[in-house]
Specification:
Length: 304
């Protein structure tokens, strides 16, 4: 099993693993949101809302296992938010597992549309957006998405700043809306993608944390990156100036890429200063933890 990675940025806490062709999954435990299923690792089972970027096996294979394992640990059925064209195939998959296993794994599969927000909490939304990973598919309805997790706050409108509490209450009693909606993009996950216009979206480029794939670093793999709709480290000098993110974590490196070589290539293309806010996921190893005791089943999870 590949080891997973972990980092925090302010109050944002990210766990995950991402290797091209192996598996990719991320969880934001405090926000109860996950991205992609990988092979349904233990960390994903306590997450109620998981957003699937696209149907490639290394991102989607764990869907049925996620639902079935949640049932075994007595968690309520989870919610998978998937590109529209994948709803029917995934429902068929669960039905097939019912034929094999004797029980259809219980779960909710929702179609998501680019630009249509999903509310996961009163003050938290997830905004899907289209990325560039679909072009080579022979299936015409293949769709690949990224997701921004956005905190929604209400702030006092400028014209009411400086008023005292009773004055604000009085305005509210008159039916006046004294607040305005403010969006705070926290984490954006771009799934698998080549460079594209989505990187100019405000909620992407201003997200505090950006999880951006960078699959290839070898100079001889430029063409492979282009053909597979992936990002090559040599694409970053065009992309980087658009990004206002506080932290950019590069994901989805190929298995054969040595982390030290990847960092060297990153510095060659972006300069040493970029290391203050750009890193590879592989640099964020999780501290070793004790193995579960014999009384704990492997599927045991903490409450959400
Ligand atoms: Zn893919």
């Amino acid at each position: 099993m590949p080891s997973s990675f972990e980092f925090t940025h302010g109050s944002i806490h990210v766990l995950g693993y991402s290797g091209a062709g192996q598996e990719t999954w991320f969880v934001l435990p405090e926000l109860n949101v996950g991205f992609d299923f990988g092979r349904a690792p233990r960390e994903l089972l306590s997450i109620d809302h998981v957003f699937l970027s696209h149907g490639h096996t290394d991102h989607a294979a764990g869907v049925a296992y996620y639902f079935s394992q949640r049932m075994f640990v007595d968690n309520a059925p989870g919610h998978a938010y998937v590109p529209g064209p994948l709803v029917a195939p995934l429902e068929n998959l669960l039905t097939l597992w019912g034929d094999i296993d004797g029980q259809i794994p219980p779960g909710h599969i929702h179609a998501v549309e680019p630009g249509t927000d999903v509310t996961v909490r009163r003050d938290l939304i997830v905004r899907p957006f289209e990325v560039c990973h679909a072009c080579r598919s022979r299936r015409s309805r293949f769709q690949a998405l990224g997701f921004s997790v956005i905190e929604v706050r209400r702030k006092l409108k400028d014209e009411y700043q400086g008023l005292h509490g009773p004055q604000i209450v009085e305005l509210k009693n008159q039916g006046i809306d004294v607040t305005r909606r403010v969006e705070l993009p926290l984490v954006t996950y771009c799934g698998d993608t080549g460079p594209g216009d989505f990187l100019s979206l405000d909620h992407v480029r201003k997200s505090k944390v950006l999880l951006l794939e960078c699959t290839f670093v070898d100079p001889e793999h430029r063409e492979r990156a282009r053909a597979g709709n992936h990002i090559h480290v040599a694409d970053l000098p065009d992309i980087y100036p658009k990004l206002d993110n506080e932290r950019i974590v590069l994901t989805h490196l190929t298995r054969r890429t040595n982390l030290r070589d990847a960092k060297t290539a990153l510095v060659e293309h972006l300069g040493e200063e970029a290391l203050e806010r750009v890193s590879f996921l592989g640099e964020h190893r999780r501290p070793r933890r004790r193995r579960p005791t014999a009384e704990q089943e492997p599927g045991d999870v903490d409450a959400p």
